[in-house]
Amino acid sequence: MAATAPAVVIAAAEPGDAGEILTVQRAAFVAEAQLYGDPFIAPLVESAEQIRAAIERGAVALKALDGHRLVGAVRALPAGRSCLVSRLAVAPDRQGGGVGRALLAALPDAVAAAAPEAEDLVVHTGHLSAEDLRLYRGFGFAETGRERMDDHLTLVHLRRAVRPAPA
User: Fold this and answer.
1) pLDDT band with cut points at 50, 70 and 90 for residue 9
2) What are the GO MF terms of this UniProt record (predicted)?
C-alpha cells in the first residue's frame, strides 16, 4: 500500500516567514528556469527582504505548513478590482501532492477578506508550463491572452472571478 502525504495546514504568511518562503520559492522555480533556459527569472532573483516588504505592503500571502515545515506559499497583490496571483511555490519533494491545490483553494477567501473590492484573480505563466496551466484551469482560470516576451517565452494570461457567480 502506498503511503499518503500528510495533510497541510494553510495559514496567512507573516513578514517573518520571508526567509522560509524564499527557500521554498527558489527550490520550486529551478525547474522553471531550466525549462525556459533563464536562470534569472523573477522568483529566483527576489530577495527575502523583497518578500517581507511585499507582505508588509498588503500582499495576500498564504503558506502551507506540514507540521513546522513550510512546504508551499502563494501571494496575491491587490490592484484595484483585480488581484495578481504570483509566486505559487511548492517544495520539490511535495509537488504533485495537493499542496498547490490547497493554496489555490484557500486564496479566494483570503483575497475576499483582505481586498473586498477585488473581483478577479489574474495570473500569468509561461507557455511551456503545462502543469501550471492545468492547475490554474482546474481552478476556473480561463486564458485571456498571450504575450510574447522574447524568443523563448510567451506569457499566458489567465483570469477568474474571486467569487464565481452562483449557478
Assistant:
1) very high
2) acyltransferase activity, transferring groups other than amino-acyl groups
In the chain, the number of structural domains is 1
Do 103 and 64 contact (CB within 8 A), yes or no? yes
Residue 3 lies in a domain: no
106-125: average pLDDT: 95
CATH (domain of 17): 3.40.630.30
Name which residue leads in pLDDT, 114 or 167. 114
Please state, rounded to an integer, the average pLDDT across all residues of the chain. Answer: 92
Task: Assess whether pLDDT exceeds 60 at residue 5.
Answer: no
Domain that includes residue 138, residue range: 9-161
For residue 108, is it within any domain? yes
H or E element: which one contains 150? strand 142-150
CA–CA dist 100, 119 (Å, integer): 22
Q: Is 28 helix (H, G, I), strand (E, B) or coil?
A: helix
Q: How far is CA 65 from CA 25, 75, 78, 106, 160, in A?
A: 14, 15, 24, 13, 26
Query: Beta strand 60-66 with 69-79: parallel, antiparallel or unpaired?
Result: antiparallel
Is 119 inside any structural domain?
A: yes
Helical ranges in 1-127 per DSSP H = 18-36, 42-45, 48-56, 99-114
Q: Considering the domain boundaries, does residue 2 fall inside one?
A: no
